[in-house]
């Protein structure tokens, strides 16, 4: 009997060890695969970075000249000294101007640039720089950010920052529009850039004018231009342009109704039944067609994975917006009602390009 128990114990122990070894082996294989994928993507990242860096070699002096030409074109005092530096952006956005508080999404970009600052010889000032960005491929100024001029007015009106300044009354929108129109005529303006409105950034003392790139009436999600002027005086203090996405066909075989139906099916598979019972009361659904860049929605294995594909597709963007996010019905997770659920669907084929994550605390069990 004792031998039987001993044998049983040994068999059980052997089985446990075998199971442990199996899972350890499985974990090791998975870890190896993940590590291999990481190394491969890191190598791609390094190769791309080296390639983009090479595209910027020998471009420092020319980049400074491009910036000076920009200053001369718009009668700007660009500074007394230059501090050039090379930057290669992988997976990250264009460095945005401080003068904007807009709803533009921060999207993935992949390119090489020269960014540098001109500085004013003014010992009385804390912020003296005027920042420029020049694309190494197109040889074009894509970013101008005049902190020196902006902060000159911050100090003039007794502020400690742009957000803590009592800005004077801004000029009328129609007058600001006339000024930015004159500036835009002297810019390198692509033909498919379409004016998209004005916005008075009251807390910054700035008027912003927006353009968006369009094809056949459809907007590109990440190609646009903004011009910033002082709201009271009309001086040009900021400019930024993104123009990278490849054109695509604009055939829409999928109707709005069909796209919403696809999105609703995905939504219903992700959220609890108690939410679905009150779906119409809890959420409003919006739909829009945009030209999107599918590669930016593919999850990288790691943050260093390079996104080089700038091809685009016309897509339906379906979003669920909370109707009353601060007043949830009983039994409904408050966090869910602050969640904006998004599905992006190829307008030609119906393929789902992207689906938002749903917090684990509110997913269907």
Overview of the structural elements:
It contains seven helices and twelve strands. The protein has helices at 2-55, 60-73, 147-156, 173-185, 256-270, 273-276, 279-282, and strands at 81-90, 110-119, 129-135, 140-146, 193-201, 206-215, 218-230, 236-242, 283-292, 313-322, 341-346, 352-355. It is of the alpha+beta class. The chain has two domains: 60-242, no CATH class; 256-362, no CATH class. Strands 1, 2, 3, 4, 5, 6, 7, 8, 9, 10, 11 and 12 form a twelve-stranded mixed sheet that branches. Mean pLDDT is 76; it is low at 88-110 and 301-306. The protein is globular. Helix content is 31%, strand content 28%.
Describe, in short, the structure shown.
The chain is α+β, with helices and mostly antiparallel strands. The protein has helices at 2-55, 60-73, 147-156, 173-185, 256-270, 273-276, 279-282; strands at residues 81-90, 110-119, 129-135, 140-146, 193-201, 206-215, 218-230, 236-242, 283-292, 313-322, 341-346, 352-355. Strands 1, 2, 3, 4, 5, 6, 7, 8, 9, 10, 11 and 12 form a twelve-stranded mixed beta sheet that branches.
Q: Which series of helices and strands comes N to C?
A: HHEEEEHHEEEEHHHEEEE
What is the rounded Rg? Answer: 27 Å
Strand content: 25-35%
Largest sheet: 12 strands, mixed
Query: How many distinct helices?
Result: 7
Shape: globular
- Give the low-pLDDT segments: 88-110, 301-306
Report the helical percentage: 25-40%
What number of structural domains do the residues give? 2
Number of strands: 12
Query: What's the N-to-C terminus distance?
Result: 47 Å
* Average pLDDT number: 76
Structural class: alpha+beta
């Amino acid at each position: 009997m004792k031998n039987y128990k001993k044998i049983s114990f040994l068999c059980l122990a052997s089985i446990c060890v075998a199971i442990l070894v199996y899972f350890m082996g499985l974990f090791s294989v998975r870890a190896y695969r993940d590590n291999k994928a990481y190394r491969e993507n890191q190598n791609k990242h390094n190769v791309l970075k080296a390639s983009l860096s090479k595209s910027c070699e020998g471009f420092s002096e020319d980049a400074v000249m491009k910036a000076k030409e920009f200053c001369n074109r718009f009668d700007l005092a660009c500074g007394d000294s230059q501090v050039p530096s090379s930057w290669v952006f992988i997976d990250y956005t264009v460095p945005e101007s401080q003068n904007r508080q807009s709803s533009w999404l921060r999207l993935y970009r992949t390119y090489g640039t020269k960014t540098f600052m001109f500085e004013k010889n003014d010992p009385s000032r804390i912020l003296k720089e005027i920042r420029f960005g020049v694309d190494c491929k197109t040889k074009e100024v894509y970013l101008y950010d005049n902190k020196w001029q902006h902060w000159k007015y911050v100090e003039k009106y007794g502020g400690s920052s742009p957000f803590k300044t009592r800005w004077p009354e801004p000029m009328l929108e129609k007058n600001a529009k006339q000024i930015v129109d004159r500036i835009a005529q002297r810019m390198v303006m692509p033909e498919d850039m379409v004016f998209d409105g004005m916005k008075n950034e009251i807390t910054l003392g700035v008027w912003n004018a927006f353009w968006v790139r369009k094809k056949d009436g459809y907007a590109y999600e990440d190609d646009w231009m903004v011009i910033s002027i002082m709201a009271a005086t009309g001086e040009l203090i900021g400019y930024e342009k993104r123009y990278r996405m490849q054109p695509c066909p604009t055939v829409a075989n999928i109707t709005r109704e069909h796209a919403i139906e696809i999105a609703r099916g995905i939504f219903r598979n992700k959220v609890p039944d108690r939410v679905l019972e009150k779906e119409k009361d809890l959420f409003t659904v919006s739909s829009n067609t945009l030209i999107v860049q599918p590669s930016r929605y593919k999850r990288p294995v790691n943050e260093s994975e390079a996104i080089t594909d700038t091809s685009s597709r016309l897509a339906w963007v379906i979003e669920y917006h909370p109707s009353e996010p601060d007043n949830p019905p009983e039994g409904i997770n408050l966090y869910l009602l602050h969640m904006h659920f998004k599905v992006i669907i190829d307008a030609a084929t119906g393929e789902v390009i992207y689906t938002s994550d749903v917090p684990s605390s509110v997913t269907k069990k």
